[in-house]
Amino acid sequence: MEAGREDFYIGLSLAVSSSLFIGASFILKKKGLLRLASKGSTRAGHGGYAYLKEGLWWAGLISMGAGEAANFAAYAFAPATLVTPLGALSVLVSAVLSSYFLCERLNLHGKIGCLLCVLGSTVMVVHAPQEEEVASLSVMAEKLKDPGFIVYAVCVVGSSLVLIFAVAPRFGQKNVLVYILICSVIGSLSVSCVKGLGIGIKELFTGTAVLREPLFWSMVVCLVVCVSIQISYLNKALDIFNTSIVTPIYYVFFTTSVMACSAILFKEWLSMSLNAVVGTISGFLTIVLGIFLLHAFKDIAFSWDSMPLYLRKSGGPRPYTAITGQTGEPPLEGGAVGGRASWKQKAPSLQ
Questions:
Q1: How far out from the chain centre does Cα 214 lie?
Q2: What is the pLDDT of residues 139-169, one digit of tens each?
Q3: How far is CA 254 from CA 63, 104, 108, 181, in A?
Q4: How many CB atoms neighbour CB 294 within 10 A?
Q5: Of 87, 119, 311, 339, which one has the greatest count of Cβ atoms within 10 A?
């Protein structure tokens, strides 16, 4: 029990640090891409690879690599449905940093959306389903042979190929969902590979000859391919669309894909109580609502100062005081202190 609790806190700490690194990486990459665009280089959204010579982009890549490494380790210690929802913290970090360093305005709706993302993630963590015990690569191999997971993997690969070769060339420049869908569905497979490799590395430290297992190296190759595709299409999305749009939408679709893949592979939901199911779904819907607020109202100049007076903490309703003239004339126009013209002056002549 103590060992399980220690693993839980290790996985939780790694997941939080991963979100901090990944959230900062989006800002660094975007700054590098903007610098290249100002120099007139071929943009990543149009097939250019000039970002490979940009220092800021590499700093973002290193930051993302550190975040992914922490994320990789977190999956080895904690369930995927605990680690993945905490990615909402990267949305919060990215949104806050982009408002300071990229001048991407974060209005009141966006701030509430960030708060809802954190709240929903907390609810999901509290009610996170417990995955089946997978302590060795041999058990992982049996899971991968499950017909349900094979069907899911075939659907993911097939849909990804259609998106890459048929949909992306036509609609990728116009619709942000195209590139993000490719990253998300491929990402669900990469998480499964990360989970298996984490188990294998833990076995390696106990003296098991993991490096002789074909499954271990197969997962390494699969992970490299999946991550390469994710990086390429995420760069395209970041180059064309606003960071405050790409980051939260990517989180929603990526989390959904990982939850579906994890549920199929590890049969997590079968052992959950009704309260846990309702809590998990409620937490996820709360995150989706937060993402919606971040995305739908991003261009509206809505701040605390534009709210009605009676909703502000620093002020109250303005008093309405009628003032009459010295000869008993009707009140000034507007009936408030500071009026300029009298009613008599504004009234039309009857003659």
A1: 34
A2: 888 888 889 999 999 999 999 999 999 999 8
A3: 19, 23, 25, 8
A4: 28
A5: 87
